[in-house]
Structures
1.
Amino acid sequence: MKLGAGSDPIVYTTIAEVLSIGAIGSTAGEVETTHLESTAKDYIGGLPDGGTLEFKVNYLASNTQQNALRDGVGTTKNVQVLWSDTTTGTFALVILGFTRDETTPEGQLTATISGRISGGIVWA
């Protein structure tokens, strides 16, 4: 998983020690278009919605990308995910939360980042 910076071109840098990434995809609602001459209900697809996303990292206090997410709650960041089958998904993510998780007895420090996908997902 990578965090984008700059513009034209956006440069993506790996977010260190990502442990898990929630489901990523789009769904579309339905818009009823039934009119008085219809013999049954008519529908068209609504606008795609990327939904929400949550991912977990080993928290590294000195990591630039993790700090940008922590300090960027309420802002929109460019994000890119690369899967093992070489598929990529690139999208804008409104950062809604950055939470340091409960510390384990073994001392693992993790954080959970949550956000909402804004606009479409570009698949490649």
2.
Amino acid sequence: MKRLGTREREMLRTVHGPVVEQGMWRIRTDLELRELYKELDIIADVKKQRLEWTGHVVRVDQGRTVKKILESKTEGSRRERPRMRWLEDVENNLREMKVKRWRRKAVDREEWASVIIEVKAHRGP
């Protein structure tokens, strides 16, 4: 995700170009880019969409395939460190934002929408 954010800022610098200050050219800072762009950065947008999808899946019927996949545990062994599951990544994002009892909140569509709004405002790692 970090490389994705770096690439986004690189593209925004290309689009918005450098700045002339006192006859000298310089590239725009991250803060200047954020003020110019005013939209969610790509990482926050990915997190927001991931949480929207998670809320949807939590609310679907128990028999649906997507629900079974979300709640399943992978079996088997790997010689390397186990890969982080998609749900673990979502839970880490929620932990960063100090959201507790997220499954209960996801069942209530309105309460989950307030969590999504928090994600839009959150400017964390």
3.
Amino acid sequence: MPEDNRSSISGSRSYEELADYWDHHSLAEHWNETSAVEFEVDMQQKSSIYFPVAKFLAEDLRAAASLYGVSAETLLNIWLQRCVDESRKNEAQPGESRRAG
């Protein structure tokens, strides 16, 4: 957000307000208020990989993340890491059969 903490087009004071605004408005309504910009995108950087998530799961994830006070992405990474760690732990235990998943 700009220094006065308000979006120039929507007047939003938070990212939630900004998202809500653009959920109900079109850029076409404000096209004359925009200007051309140039930017570069580094497609070589691969620090994140994205997977599709079912909408109902994404909604539950966002709600849970809000309760914990973290982003949905952060909570998903924490939960996924726990699952991976648990899976590795189970694979390392001798005498137990592995189930196909």
4.
Amino acid sequence: MSKKIIDREDISDTRDDPVDEIDRKILRCLYKNARIPLREIAQKIGVSVSTVSARIKALENEKVILGYIPILDPKKLGYDLLTIIGVRISEGKLADVEEKLAKDERVLQVFDVTGEWDSILIARFRSREELNFFVKHLLAQPHIERTNTLLVLNVVKDEKRLPLGP
């Protein structure tokens, strides 16, 4: 018997959707090119430029669109090592420690998680020596009990865009 991957349509979602189909079309255009002229978006989706402008402004005001940033190639900037670091933190100190860890520019993401680790860090480093120093510095911090560092060998998928549905 083969296993079926669950389709999104198979999952009922009772939340009110903050965006409609026109907004989704606009977002898809911006995903392809965040610098696309509003006139071009309007032509592609069949609405007026003022509609596109008003919709984008509303999406920004509602914090659906959080910002616009270039997607950089970390390797071309010298950040060849991608790591996933599990951190065990003393009870009651999670928020304080995570706030401090999040300030390090090499730490790209900090997650509260369930399971063996209290927090997971996604971080990039220029060299093994830099990673080594970072991990040893982590372990010397108060309230950090233990770490587990995974070195990413190959990135199969690293998608920045959220699924927008059909």
